[in-house]
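tool_call: predict_structure(chain=1)
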Amino acid sequence: MTPQDLEPIVTVALMAAQADGTTAPEELARLKAAVTRLGIPDPEALVQRLASDKHAIGDITGRLTSDEARRLAYQTALVVVMADGFANPAEQKFLASLRTALGLTPVAIGQIEESAASIATAPITTAVVPAGGGAAAGDAGLDELVLQQAMLTGALELLPEGLANVAILPLQLRMVYQIGQHYGQKLDINQVKDLAGTLGIGAAAQVMEGVVRKMVGGFLLGGLIGGAAGVAAGAAVTFSGTYALGHVAKQYYAQGRKLSTDDLRNLFARFRSDAETIWPKIQNQVQQQARNLNLPSVMGMLKQ
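tool_result:
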């Protein structure tokens, strides 16, 4: 890996974030801002080039300097695609084109693809098991559940394996599902995803930035994109998002799903602000939890 690998890898991640073909203008603006924070000075020109050049993928991957960089570019794209759910047909087509452009064989990336798909498609209808033990059925128990799941998802951001990020959304969705069950709501995965999506959970820009910082930052000379600091910041963001999502879900389902979109978003902002004041008090616990986690244990958690 060399510093010149940064821009093509960020570009591949940006393409992965838009591969489903449904990027809204607001999300595109967030993606451009994330690209800037990742060290690319003119995101507008990059986005315009990708939109106008159907053959850009070959030019971009051709600038990678080593087999290691090519494998990392593919893994980064795979995690970005899978981190908000299983790849749809457009995303699968993109990944296939990327594999070809990178010259990667099924043998080279088959295991990571299989693991990513297994994590991304984990069922949400099984009971969440809080990291700190069982929670009682009452509101206080749900508060503890939300806190423990927020800490767990924050810890996943700190793991070195990029695939750990794919587990964050399934765990968040399971938490929401269990909260809904507590309040007598009969939910399917689409209803749970709709609530998370309304609040920006799993948004492409956030996923892309976090994954690139984790998977690329530590390899580049001098930490050009703030590898360690960026990953730590990502843990705080994920903790806050999960915490706010859980508490919004509590109010939403307790009130029979009658809150408006504006109400939900205002609540989310309020609870996220609360979470930001909690984070410094539990940051060391999250770091300790991350030291006791690994990818196999995370995959086992999703099978419970």
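agent: Residues 139-302 form one domain. Proceeding to next step.
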